[in-house]
Specification:
single chain, alpha/beta, TIM Barrel, 2 domains, eight-stranded parallel beta sheet, two-stranded antiparallel sheet, 14 helices, 45% helix, globular, binds nicotinamide-adenine-dinucleotide
């Protein structure tokens, strides 16, 4: 039975699952595979070296799918500040109508997308930020719990409470993001009022994901205990895979008084990218969420979404049986 929610209707997708923005991972091959499988694939704009390359990536994606897909733009501290407005303009001019925004001070970008008639999904980690984004006119919120990979914000609120608060306080549809990799997580999210889910780490571990096979296998072999937070002391907290480099960064931060310059060479995104290219999990920093503890296989996106859909039906039916038994 199809899972119909405000998200599937708004985006015209079959399954309420979004493949969120992931640096170095959200490239046309994966995005098209997710969209073809019935979810929403999202190209990560900053993975492309410049706005012109983003135009090419959009064209490549369109050549591989006729289904809806989006573009992510994340505004966070960067070693080389990107031309955010240039990426946004390129995507709008290429006819993209769905955007995922995330990070700090997204107001101008959101206004630009809305003035061009686009749908905006804004990712945030507090209800306070969610409400500000609603005022800016976003269509959907992506409520990112502390479980997530990448940047969870600085307030450390897990998805269970954050989503229950969202159910009480938000009047527009929202996605559950962070810690979701299986059917139980999707059903729990729907029960918490979400119109769908955002998954990142789960999609890193698919056949069409562009990262090296060794890293996919490393995720499968790892547990929920194999991530760590870096940048806590710099107020730019990021959950990343626990390896030699991330532990070195944490050790430098623990000494006290660390500045970004003290860790810059260790954490650079270009170095992290080599992890995905060479398959050496200890080469640099790479993002992973605690959902990796739930990941045990490397399916195609098509198989993954079919399995999740079937799993959702089974979990709901098991739950109904529990409720009937409880009533007897
Ligand atoms: P980068 O090489 O510019 O920086 C590496 C890491 O250091 C990033 O986490 C960045 O936020 C952090 N950083 C940079 N300057 C900093 C400073 N002055 N103080 C504190 N932290 C600082 O990053 P990159 O890998 O080339 O990525 C480019 C941008 O995309 C970064 O802002 C990054 O955070 C962001 N990003 C996006 C996604 C996404 O899903 N779209 C995922 C992860 C990171």
């Amino acid at each position: 039975m199809p899972i119909v929610t405000p998200l599937t209707k708004l985006l015209n997708i079959r399954v309420p699952v979004v493949q969120g923005g992931m640096q170095w991972v959200g490239v046309p091959k994966l995005v098209a595979a997710v969209s073809n499988a019935g979810g929403l694939g999202i190209i990560t704009a900053l993975t492309q070296p410049n706005p012109s390359a983003l135009r090419t990536a959009i064209k490549e994606t369109r050549a591989m799918t006729s289904k809806p897909f989006g573009v992510n733009i994340t505004l966070l501290p960067s070693i080389n500040p990107p031309d955010y407005a240039g990426y946004a303009r390129a995507a709008v001019e290429e006819g993209v109508t769905i955007f995922e925004t995330a990070g700090n001070s997204p107001g101008d970008l959101i206004k630009y997308f809305k003035s061009n008639g686009c749908i905006v999904i804004h990712k945030c980690t507090t209800i306070r930020h969610a409400k500000s984004a609603v005022k800016l006119g976003v269509d959907v919120l992506s409520i990112d719990g502390f479980e997530c990979a990448g940047h969870p914000g600085e307030e450390d609120i897990g998805g269970l409470v954050l989503l229950a608060r969202a159910a009480k306080e938000l009047k527009i549809p929202y996605l559950a993001s962070g810690g979701i990799a299986d059917a139980r997580g999707i059903v729990a999210s729907l029960a918490l009022g979400a119109a769908g889910v955002n998954m990142g780490t789960r999609f890193m571990c698919t056949v069409e994901s562009p990262i090296h096979q060794n890293i996919k296998e490393k995720i499968v072999a790892s547990s929920e205990q194999d991530t760590v937070h870096i940048f806590r002391t710099l107020h730019n907290t990021a959950r990343v895979f626990k390896n030699k480099v991330s532990m070195e960064v944490v050790a430098i931060e623990r000494r006290g008084g660390a500045k970004f310059e003290d860790v810059r060479d260790l954490v650079s995104g270009q170095r992290g990218r080599m992890v995905y290219e060479t398959g050496d999990p200890d080469y640099g920093i790479w993002s992973a969420g605690i959902a990796q503890g739930l990941i045990t296989d490397i399916p195609t996106c098509e198989d993954l979404l079919r399995t999740l859909e079937k799993g959702v039906e089974e979990v709901i039916s098991d739950l109904s049986a529990v409720v009937v038994k409880a009533k007897l």
